[in-house]
């Protein structure tokens, strides 16, 4: 299953955006208002839960300085990645595109597509807080 949300322009340099996204404690700033729990587990891992949803543990899986940040599920039960592609548009303007990639059966994909899309749209909207 692949989900992409519209790219978001941010009034920061690509380096600032990359530094923000690779410091996982900053993801609390990007979370939706209906967050029930946010906990940093270590330098590369955090756990969060939204009201009415199970807890999700994300781990920083890959970094390409000033270009890409990949977070992935810490568990292999539901393998997925959340990728932030960072593109410098100028010294103080950057475009961030979020994409989700996961392997789910058809029933699971149908159930989670809408909540994941909404979650990613919120993350993207909240990029203004960087």
From TrEMBL:
It comes from the Bacteria. Gene3D superfamilies: 3.30.530.20. SUPFAM superfamilies: Bet v1-like. This is Carbon monoxide dehydrogenase subunit G. It comes from Flagellimonas flava.
């Amino acid at each position: 299953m692949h989900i992409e949300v519209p790219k978001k322009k941010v009034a920061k340099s690509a380096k600032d955006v990359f530094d923000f996204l690779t410091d996982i404690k900053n993801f609390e700033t990007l979370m939706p208002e209906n967050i029930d729990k946010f906990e940093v587990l270590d330098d590369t891992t955090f756990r969060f839960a939204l009201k009415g949803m199970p807890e999700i543990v994300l781990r920083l899986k890959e970094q390409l300085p000033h270009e890409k940040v990949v977070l992935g599920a810490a568990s292999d039960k539901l393998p997925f990645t959340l990728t932030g592609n960072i593109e410098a548009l100028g010294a103080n303007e950057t475009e961030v595109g979020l994409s989700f990639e996961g392997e789910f059966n058809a029933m699971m994909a149908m159930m989670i597509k809408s909540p994941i899309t909404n979650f990613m749209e919120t993350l993207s909207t909240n990029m203004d807080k960087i």
